[in-house]
Amino acid sequence: MDPENTQYPYEPEFSFKKLIAERADDVKYVFKFKKALALFILIGALLGAFAAWYKAPTYTARLTFVVDDSKSSGGSGGLSALAGLAGVNLEGIGGASGVLAGDNVEELIKSHKLIKATLLTAYDSTQTLADKYAAVYKLDKKWLKYSPDGKVIRFPLNGMHNSRLQDSLLHEMTILILDGEFEIAKTDKKLGFFEVNATMKDELLAALFCSRMIKQSTDFFISTKTKRLRDNVNRLQLRADSIGARLNNKTYAASAANQSILDLNPAYTTANANIEVKERDKIVLSTIFSETVKNLETSKTMLAQETPTVQIVDEPELPLKKNKLKYPMAILTGILIAGISFSLFKIFTRKRY
Length: 353
Prior knowledge:
Elements: H1 16-30, H2 34-54, E1 58-68, H3 76-85, H4 104-109, H5 112-119, H6 129-136, H7 139-142, H8 164-178, E2 182-186, E3 193-200, H9 203-225, H10 227-260, H11 270-306, E4 309-314, E5 321-323, H12 327-352
Antiparallel strand pairs: 1-3, 1-4, 1-5, 2-3
Helix pairs in contact: 1-12, 2-12, 5-8, 5-9, 10-11
């Protein structure tokens, strides 16, 4: 086929002026249906007002805290600060390491284990946070079909002897909470401040969940980070107590032997040997006790140095921030959606036919 004889379809030249003229024609066409457009706008406004009235308000609990780790204030602190000015993150390089090093804190606090543990704390004297959450979001009625006895499923404190069903429902609540109701973020990459927000339909529930979530996370973090040192301190403490008790017994025994030798016949030399043995055991135990106590105090000092501090800066205070869909915004949104939907429908209908 000869390329010179090939016929290509004609493509009109693009023009902004023509495009604007076409859109103006569309607007004029839509306004031919003023009554229908006004009806749609009125319906949209009513639906927006109904949404503002029907949608339950939510409450946001905000908490900020800072993690002070002894390792994070070492020699690499200055280097990290200088690197931060250049936009480079050196956290974890020669500095703090472990569970809450760098951005790990965000993943730790959002863990399912800690959220479930928080839900199983007390809301009041009769129910847990999990019970209240299920009631506020009407999950307790939804779950009645799973109840073996037809009663509302309850969640006991601390989750002792939870059934498979209770564990499954706790998991479902955890997913719902992580899906937009609970979030944590670092306010500044160069600083160690973290901000936690919990947004729920019950004011007290949001405040309690936010505060206790941080407490659960703090206890878990400190317990995990210092477990080895705490075990060592406990072991040395038991050993020091045991040796101290034996040393006391040896001291009393040596003192009694020295007292009894005054009444013995000097011809009996075995009594002197007995006293020497008791004195020697006392000296050996005293030396061991001294070294054990020294190691114990050293371990306690190391434990104090290695124990991080999680300092709460701002706590949730009642009344919390109330998130309510405002009527003007809801009505305006309904008008815009209705007007645009009607216009697009008419324009596409005209073009199709």
